[in-house]
Amino acid sequence: MRIIDVHTHPIFFGSGAKRPEVARLVARSRALGIVRMVSLGDVLFHGAHPTAAQVAELNDDNARVQSWHPDFFSSFCMLNPVLGERAVMKEVERCVTKYGFKGIKLEISNNARDACMKPVMEAARRFGLVVLQHSWSMVNLKLRRFHSDPADTAALARRHPDVKIIMAHLTGCGFRGVLEAKGCANLYIDTSGGYPEEGLVEYAAEHLGADHVLYGSDLPIRENTVTIGRILGARLSAADKQKMLYGNTARLLNLN
Amino acid sequence: MLIDTNAHLGPWPFSPLPDYTGPQLAAHLAASGIRRALVSHLGAVFLPDPTPANRRLFAAVRRTPALLPVPILNPALRTWPEQLAECRAAAPIRAVKLLPNYHNYTLTAPALDEFMAALAAAKLKLVLNVRLEDERHKYFALRMKGVPAAALGGFLRRFPSHHVLLTGLYKPDLEKLAPEHTNFSADIAFCEWTNTLEHLLKKIPANRLMLGTCTPLLSTRAETDKLVRASLPARTKALIGSENARRFFNL
Lengths: 256, 251
Known about the structure:
The structure holds two protein chains of two kinds.
Chain A lengths: L2 E6 L10 H13 L2 E6 L12 H17 L4 E7 L5 H15 L3 E4 L10 H11 L2 E4 L16 H10 L5 E3 L2 H12 L5 E4 L9 H9 L4 E2 L9 H9 L5 H15 L4
Parallel strand pairs in A: 1-2, 2-3, 3-4, 4-5, 5-6, 6-7, 7-8
Helix pairs in contact in A: 2-3, 3-4, 5-6, 6-7
Chain B lengths: L1 E8 L12 H9 L3 E8 L1 H4 L4 H11 L5 E3 L10 H11 L4 E4 L12 H11 L3 E5 L19 H10 L5 E4 L3 H7 L6 E4 L8 H5 L8 E2 L9 H9 L5 H15 L3
Parallel strand pairs in B: 1-2, 2-3, 4-5, 5-6, 6-7, 7-8
């Protein structure tokens, strides 16, 4: 079985950045059937509000990892939307033209409904990039000023129907999050985040369609054996599992 | 053959989980390689008296030898000796489980002195559950956290002659408690990081870890794969997967 992991942080708070460490990660992942990993960068190394220089530094680090194993890693460009249109456009253009990044990664600099998202989505549109938005239910976490609830990410997707968006963290979004995403053809959800809570993968497949659910681990916070096992153990057809583990992301990011 | 030290029957009010019968749960666990499981009833979590749920547990596992009942007791209730006596009369039991955070008492409660003495006299093991779910995802009206590591440490110091199984510990809490306290083992259900077990084994020996899946709240396959697909020697996997549980529960 071939697998693409759409949500990983090979470098995490500075750890894992050395070439032998990356090589070990690639070897271990391949042994589990993972043929590709989307590297989202060390997104919180400089906190929730990195400067333009810090954003560029983290994207350069991410590009270095990709350059060591270009057949394995695809990278997303992390941004701080609050820095404004000029900074956003400049960094996206740099990461696409210089490194061939495949998408945009948004963390917790702002809420997905904020006005500063407009140039980000314009950049995604212009360069044909997928946007992966950190999302987590804010019902028990009162952090919505900077975090995006699944309702916020779904609102972003409805405002920009021509941009493909991945709502990160199925487990953190929960059952309500799945329902927020329902009916958005341009909105996908990744299975990363949290412990392997039972029933959510099946629920997402039922309400969003199996072709809108993407396997993601959130490595290194999570374990690939666990996150893959959660999909393999789901009460779904083998074809649906294969879509989630490989086909959907391969199609979305044009990965072969 | 795997032994699951942390499985449940019964419904959970906050998510649409499978509500297995005994044979259905045994078959579900067997599909992930689990041949025996220590099982409690989720109904005991929220009932004012766990007894009716324990009765349902004993009835459900009576004809399913793969499932070994672990009744949940509440020592904050004056009648806990009666609860314990009824459970012991219902079926041979090897252990009982406590849920301090759900049953509104702390691990400094005076009643625990007598309770622990009663367990020792009956040659019963104690399973102390720290959490059943990630606190971030609990039902919005539940204001409850896992049992704090400091409270667990105090409990382990208070009862040094008891070797306790802690279920539902987060990895950082397990790593914090393990070097300081040798009188506990832990399940791995809520421990996760890349190469979870390799990391844990730097802090706690393999003979103190046990497979626990927290079925049906967590995915059984995901939790067993954490062990089965780990890059560990077969001997280590055997200890964590079954032998430690067999020894602890005297199976």
